[in-house]
Structures are given as structure tokens and as C-alpha cells.
Amino acid sequence: MTEQKPVYRAWFESLENPAERYALDEVVYTDSSGGLLRVVHDKDELAKTSADGWKALFDERSHKNEWPYGSGVWGFKEWVLPEVDNENIVSMYEGHTNLFWAERYGRQIGIEDLWIKLCGNSHTGSFKDLGMTVLVSMVKEMIARGKPVRAVACASTGDTSAALAAYAAAAGIPAIVFLPRGKISLAQLIQPVANGAIVFALDTDFDGCMEIVKQVAANDGVYLANSMNSLRIEGQKTVAMEIMHQFDWEVPEWLIIPGGNLGNVSALAMGLDMMVDLGLVQRRPRICVAQAEAANPLYLSYKRDFKVFEPIAARPTMASAIQIGNPVSYKKAVDALRRYDGVVEQASESELAEASAEADRTGLFNCPHTGVALAAMKKLLARGLIRKSDRVVVISTAHGLKFIDFKVDYHQMQLEDVVPDLPNPPIELPGSYEAVRDRMNVEIARRFKA
Fold first, then answer.
1. What pTM did the predictor assign?
2. Interatomic CA distance for residues 93 and 91, integer angstroms
3. Cα dist. 91→74, 127, 168 in Å?
């Protein structure tokens, strides 16, 4: 008698009413009362494989080229999107990003075991690739099953649009993106343009773009690709799973996560939940959500014990990807923070710029959102919440090359309301050996004194 193989299943489920379920190929984003959905897996079936069995399988697939399991997302396929046909997976072998040991930076600020998860070392330069490979793969599967999907669309502050445009282009599916005009970097704008998306730059902020894309999705046969679509969360949760895999399943004391629309907070918590429930790890880390002071609705609610939430008009911030005043995933994020003994901290424009520059001096090249997380981490350290001996992992959400203007303006001392502590502009000199020698000796002595 042959042993029956497990049949892995997943479905959409209402956060408020677990009895309300939908198939993953249905065009649905909220439950009957307008609340968010989540993807739920049949954990009884997953539990038929032991924790050691899953670890061995994930080890076997890691960094290999057997399609599609060499991807940092699809190596966890059974835990992510088990029922999609491998032929419909749209992947650029995303994930497997570096867990950077920030030894020198940690020593400078007083943390002995500091790591930066460089999610920006990905195809389009941000962690959004992890969620988009899942969503676009499901859309390709839906089209193969005869579902009427005309295009995929998103509102974005930059990174989401880049990921959607690239994956949709690879799949041959039309993509439409809505961006707040003049409020994202040129590097972020050119990515969806280059990948052939229909790009609308609108005279509104992200929240205004979000309202429009929801109307388009509801009325015009276009599939919504923002993080209120829980398929995105399934890909993003693999960041947590990958971190634990890289640490040989040892759990750090802290995860520090930049927060804007707040999908990533709940995503990492979901990945951690699955590892705890299926026995791959034995405890939970604490979570800190870091917000820019100019766009801090979660922080304001946290200061009131989450008893009140009020959307705000987000003010301009250098951390433009988290310039969001009405985050879609607020409820999911609060739930995650409660489960993970979480805290919320904020960073001013000056604090995020200086934290980013300080870490850059030790070999990193941080986006401003990572600067927000680093600044928040330093505040927790100063308050004694983070201890010197704690293992701390900061989630770096995007590559610094997407924010060159931020870097240039800092070092040319042109950032509004910020007087840089660590500017390093090019030194202009005559083309003479003597002039170079004399200045070089001065600079070496000044910068690298014992």
C-alpha cells in the first residue's frame, strides 16, 4: 500500500469571521463587512511533515536552480501558495538576500549582535518583489483557469509600482500604476515606465491614489495588487522565514521594521507564527515598528494603547515610501504587535538622515526608510529596551541606489531643515601632486585618528 502524499491547501478567510472563506482564485479583497482578509493554510496537513522534515526540504532547495524552488519565496511553496501550477509561477529568483552582520556599526552604537536584512538586494531593489511574485503568479493561474482579469493595478509611493510592473511584464499581463506626482524619486518613477506599465502621476498623495485604484478594481475588471490583497503578504512573510533559516532556526531578540502601509509588519508576524506553530522555532522575537514622524498614525495610536486610531494627512518625508497617513493594514499590524510584545517608535527627518549616514560610514548604503528603522532602534537602545547583548535584525526595505537624491542632498548639505553631522562632499583641488598630498595627509589624520 503506497503512502498518500499530503494535499496542501490555502484559502482567503475573514479576520473577523473565520467561517467566511473564499478560494484564492476569487477576485475578492475584503469580507462581507468590508474588513480585510488573510490567507490561511491547512496546518493540520502541513503538520504531517515534521519540523526537521521541513528544515531538510528548505535546506535542499536553497540556492538551487530546480524551477521554481531556487527562489527565496518559492523554496517555501507549500507554506505560501501550494495550489498554483509551477508553469504559472512568475519568478526572478527573488529572496535569498544578504543578512549583513553590521559588526562595526553595532560596536559603535553599543549592540554586539546587529544584523541588517538587505531586502533591497532584489530584482527591482525592494522587498516588494517577494509579495509580487506571489500575486502575479496567482493572476497568471487565474487567467489560465479562465478568470476575466484585464490587468493588474496598484497605488504606490514607488517600490510597489516597480515590482508590479516588472513581474507583470515578465508574465505578459498589462499593469497600471497610480503614483502621487512629484512625490517619489526619479529612480522609482523610471522603473515602471521602463517596464511598460501604464503610469498615471496624479495630483494627490498616496492615500488619494489608493482610493482611485480601489474604484478601478471594483468597477473595471482590473485586479488589485496593493497589500490589502493578502496574496502579497504571503510572499513578504518569507522574509521572516528566511531570516530564521539563515540563523539556523535560532530566533533573534528583536526585529525592527519600517512601517508605512503596515503590510510588512503583519507579514513577518505571519511567517513567524507558522514557524512557531509547526515547531521550526520555539519562541517569538519582539517587534518594533518604526515610523517617520511626518507620517506616524500607528505611533500616535500606540501612544494611546491602540484605543483610538485616527488617519492623518501625512506630511512630506524623505522616507517617501512610508509617507502614508491611512495605512490599509492597521488592524493586522496592531494584532501582530500585541502577539509579539511590540512597540512603535518614530524618527524625525534629521534623525533618519543621520542614522542612515552613520551606518553608511561602516559600509552600508541605506535607503531613508532603513534610516527610520535605525533611528528607532537607537532610541530603544537608549531606553534600555534593547540590551547590548541582544541579537537585533533591522529590515532594510529598499536599495539605497533608488534614493540617490537623498544621499546627494545630504552630503551637499542641501536637505531642508537638516544640518548634516557627517557630510562628505568631494574635495575640489588644483590638479597638482603637492596640493593632493597635503590635503590627503590632513584628511587621513582627521578621519582615521586613533
1. 0.93
2. 5
3. 8, 14, 11
